[in-house]
Specification:
heterodimer, A: 114 residues, Helix Hairpins, 3 helices, elongated, B: 585 residues, mainly alpha, CPA3_antiporter_subunitC (chain A)
């Protein structure tokens, strides 16, 4: 089994685990961790593509590495934003569940807005 | 439309593309540096400049042969990154440059700089950031640039949802962020696959190289699904109603009018430019079918809402569905994707919706500020107390129904023509139904607003006249969009324009209004002060059945908006799209 295949399978496993966590876990923090795992799987995929050398003639393509770095920065910013929201939510509501607004969102007659 | 030759040099006027992105971003940085007190000033300095750049871009485009290109650092793709604008980009940039200043004028009194509060400063910075991100999406010539721009758009939008810091809006923002991240990871995975296959992410290069092989189709399915999650196409809409209804009115106008169009624009780029129809007719039908379900679901649930803002939020869901009808209609009889009337109609509808829906949200915000609530059953007499707001709501609604000379009417004509040409009569029913259902909730709201009040209305706060005027101008824009010279920007076929002032214009107003009234009576559970007892007794069994149907739809919607259900639907949509693309290839 070549290194590329091993890394490919690892990426697939990370994506699968991340997806599973993101879908099934009710807690936002765990969802966020699952998202990071999922993202890591996709970044690994970029790494493999760089290793294989997609662009014509390159042995080790540097472009995917540049893309991964940008991707990591974006994922980091997303995580920071989500954590900030989560902390604020915890301070405001005393819990971090996302469930309470799901049923009958539209029924609160005097729910402010506007 | 893509340039005939690969982009090898910056064209004259290409710097406008850079300016359109740099200017709003510079505004954000400047506002950050100058501090909270000057934020609004900076925003209002940037707005006219941004409008001027958009106007210059729109004027420069036909002279440049329909394309403006800017190569960053003069490196041609695939090594460098290109910015590229075509007719679609130009009209979207222009629409953004109209809607954002109008919303800014509307928001100016509410978000005045204050020492104690952070929200006003945040609002203006986020508004400029959204503008920059949207422009980057419209001129990005590279799939990865589009990814970064899309993420910037999400990051600027999420705090806007939770601007008032209440627990519900924080939850709505968090749900939105997490679901959007799921969508963007799928998009990124597709980008990785495409780069692995073709060694390029530039849209022009990819459109030359892409062929129907397994990896390409998987990438197309993943990217489309991810973007659908960000666009909130049914059944991936769990985040939209709470986010759009909970945000301040000015923010809702931007969210509903512009932000969802960003990801829609990338879907259009993907299907019409990068893949040139490779995903196939069957997969396009999935998009159309989801859009059709969205129209029915969104409208029925909208009619059952008690609060005006939630009603408008659900109607956005229906309108988003309407936009996706362009995908099946763009495939002609032989199964090839054409950049024709269907695409023009879809984009035109997106712009009409951007202007009209923003105006409607702003009107709803004025009504809320005046009454202190926005319960639809409590709107009696508001037409007398706040005539301008109700007029704006009505004009926005009429524009969306597709009454000439509105943009939506021209869009509907184009889509109907495409349906006739490509022999897909079944979409015709939905195109007509979309107008009638839109009419239904406009009629519902107006019927309550125009009814005489039980007791004199005491307005809580006076809404500044300038706010109502900004919303009214936007609604009028939408109503007059059909008269603009679109032909140099959008692929409008000959004979696509009908006479906007003919006798059929009247029927186009009356038929949806009549149909809408019937639907509003049958589907809305709220008692109406003008209800005629005799009529009501006659239709009582029918109405009960319709209300039962509405209850069922609402219950299903509640289930679909749960996180596990929504994310499972996401995977199912991806799987379905992928399978059908592969089967069709």
């Amino acid at each position: 089994m070549s290194a590329v295949t091993v890394f490919g399978l690892t990426a697939a496993a990370a994506v699968g685990l991340g997806l599973y966590g993101l879908i099934t876990n009710p807690q936002p923090l765990r969802k966020l961790l699952a998202f990071n795992l999922l993202g890591s799987g996709v970044f690994l995929l970029f790494g493999i593509i760089g290793r294989r050398g997609a662009a014509a003639g390159f042995g080790n393509d540097p472009v995917p590495q540049a893309l991964v770095i940008t991707g990591i920065v974006v994922a980091f910013a997303a995580t920071a934003l989500a954590i900030a929201l989560l902390l604020r939510l915890f301070r405001t509501a005393g819990s971090t569940t996302l469930r309470s607004d799901a049923p009958r969102m539209g029924r609160g007659a005097d729910a402010p807005g506007g | 439309m893509l340039p005939p030759a690969p982009m090898s040099a910056t064209t004259a006027g290409g710097f406008l593309l850079v300016l359109s992105i740099v200017l709003p971003v510079a505004g954000v940085l400047l506002a950050f540096a100058l501090g909270d007190r000057y934020v609004r000033l900076v925003a209002f300095t940037i707005m006219p400049l941004g409008l001027a750049i958009a106007a210059a871009l729109v004027l420069a485009l036909p002279r440049g042969g329909g394309h403006l290109v800017y190569l960053l650092g003069a490196w041609p793709p695939p090594l460098g990154v290109a910015l590229h604008a075509d007719g679609l980009s130009a009209v979207m940039i222009a629409a953004t440059a109209v809607v954002i200043p109008a919303v800014a004028v509307y928001a100016a009194p509410e978000f005045r700089p204050a020492a104690a509060a952070r929200a006003p400063a945040a609002f203006w910075m986020l508004l400029l950031a959204i503008w920059g991100a949207l422009n980057a999406i419209f001129v990005g010539g590279d799939l990865f640039t589009l990814y970064v721009a899309l993420e910037l758009l999400t990051f600027a939008t999420v705090p806007l949802v939770s601007l008032d810091g209440r627990a519900e809006t924080l939850q709505a923002a968090l749900r939105y962020l997490l679901f959007a991240l799921l969508g963007s990871v799928l998009y990124l995975a597709g980008t990785a696959l495409l780069y692995g296959l073709y060694g390029a992410l530039d849209i022009v290069l990819l459109s030359r190289r892409a062929d129907a092989q397994l990896g390409t189709l998987i990438a197309a399915a993943l990217m489309t699904t991810g973007l659908l999650a960000k666009t909130a196409l049914f059944p991936l809409h769990l985040w939209l109603p709470p986010a759009h209804a909970g945000a301040p009115a000015a923010a809702s106008a931007i969210l509903s009018g512009l932000v969802v169009k960003g990801s829609l624009f990338i879907v259009i780029r993907l299907w019409f430019d990068v893949m040139r129809g490779l995903p196939g007719f069957a997969a396009a039908h999935v998009l159309g079918a989801l859009g059709a379900t969205a129209i029915i679901f969104g409208s029925v649930v909208a009619l059952r809402q008690e609060r005006l803002k939630l009603l408008i939020a659900y109607s956005t869901l229906a309108q988003i569905g309407y936009l996706f009808l362009m995908f099946p209609l763009a495939f002609d009889v032989s199964g090839d994707l054409k950049r024709g009337g269907a695409l023009a109609g879809g984009v035109l509808q997106a712009i009409s919706h951007a202007t009209a829906k923003a105006a409607m949200f702003m009107a709803a915000g004025s009504i809320y500020a005046g009454l202190g609530h926005d319960r639809i059953t409590g709107l009696n007499g508001v037409a007398r107390a706040q005539p301008l707001s109700v007029l704006t709501f009505a004009l926005g609604g009429v524009a969306l129904m597709g009454v000439p000379p509105s943009g939506a009417s021209l869009a509907k004509d184009l889509l109907l023509q495409a349906a006739a040409e490509t022999e897909q009569w079944w979409w015709t029913i939905l195109l007509q139904a979309g107008g009638v259902l839109t009419a239904a909730y406009v009629v519902l709201v107006l019927a309550h607003a125009l009814a005489p009040p039980d007791k004199p209305i005491a307005l809580r706060g006076a809404v500044p006249r300038i706010c109502d005027l900004a919303a009214l101008v936007l609604a009028l824009c939408s109503l007059l969009l059909g008269l603009m010279p679109w032909a140099s920007y959008l692929p409008i076929p000959q004979g696509g324009m009908s006479n906007p002032l003919g006798i059929d214009a009247l029927s186009k107003l009356l038929l949806p209004v009549l149909g809408g009234t019937v639907l509003a009576i049958l589907l809305s559970p709220w008692p109406h002060p003008l209800a005629l007892n005799a009529v009501e007794r006659m239709i009582a069994p029918l109405r009960r059945a319709c209300l039962g149907f509405g209850r069922l739809v609402e219950a299903v919607d509640d289930v679909l908006r749960q996180w596990p259900a929504a994310s499972m639907s996401l995977l199912l949509v991806a799987l379905l799209l992928g399978t059908l693309m592969f089967a069709g290839a």
